[in-house]
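step: validate -> pass
step: tokenize input -> pass
step: predict -> running
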Amino acid sequence: MTDPTSLENLHDIIPMAPQPLWPPAPGWYVVAWVTAAAAVWLCVTATLRWRKNRYRREALAELDLITRGDNTAWENLTLLPALVKRTALAAYGRKAVASLTSDNWLAFLDRSLPTSDFTEGAGRLLVDIPYQPNESLASRDPAEAKALVRLVETWIKKHNAEAMPPAAR
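step: predict -> pass
step: emit ->
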């Protein structure tokens, strides 16, 4: 009879077979579907935002054409009021923008940025430029032109149509 505590009765440990990598556990299917859905949602959202901001890209390109070379040339800057108006029409719609003139127009631009630079600063020139003869514009300070261009560029980039109160739309 052999001794049950003898080392001769020991057997090697038989390792279990490794788990196969395929098919994965059901939780991985859930993770894959959630990741795919999030990726599709992000792509759709980014595409919609890009399309929604097309008017901004076009306005900035036109502003670049207007100010190319010398952004203090008042003859070129007479095109800025029309550019701002067209951009506002694209962002806010004809009903909210088309009838605005003078101080109401500048107040609208201030509310959409939020700032007071249109009613109290360089933006006031948007109302004056179209009606001034080129001779009087040429005598103006070039720093005013640069400030106006910077303000218009900032407005195009940063105005927020969604933040406007419904009465202003």
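step: describe -> The two ends are 101 Å apart (CA to CA).
step: cleanup -> pass
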